[in-house]
Input
Amino acid sequence: MELRIADPMTGARLESRQVGEVWLRAPNVTRGYFNRPQETASALTGEGWLRTGDGGYVDEDGYLFLTDRIKDMIVSGGENVYPIEVEEILSQHPDVADVAVIGVPDERWGERVTALVVTRPGVGFSAEALVEFARPRLAGYKLPRTVELVPDLPRTPTGKVLKRELRRRYDAAGFAPNRHQLSV
Output
């Protein structure tokens, strides 16, 4: 089996420790979807690589590390932001009980990094304090530009956050009263 980490936009091969989309190629990898040519065309390259939809990287020793789903990747100001990386940092804040990060359309940046935060009971939460907590731990383009307090996060029966549901709710709701726009 061959494995490649590729730029999800251009398909260019990436070097070790660069995050991109995991591609696979082998005789036992599917040749496509039965009677579904559009899905086959988007899942397979002309050279027979299967686009897995998973983000990841390979280290110098050849070990594969999975990071996030490519469809959840945020492109902000031309930079790729993987929500899981931002979520891991924000979840370390003592006032945060749960967090999800999504990209929302933004005229200036393409997409805006948006954090949906469930706070611990009885804390005085500050969106600005959360971003200041994250600032030394994340590159500037990865910092949330919007923080919204939410009572809970929608989840699958196995506990995975339903990001498509969050994006749908966010698109339908517009700006909410618990949303804090930040100048980062």
About this structure: The chain has two domains: 2-70, 73-181. Helices lie at 37-43, 83-90, 127-134, 163-173. The longest strand covers residues 96-106. The CA atoms of residues 2 and 46 lie 15 Å apart.
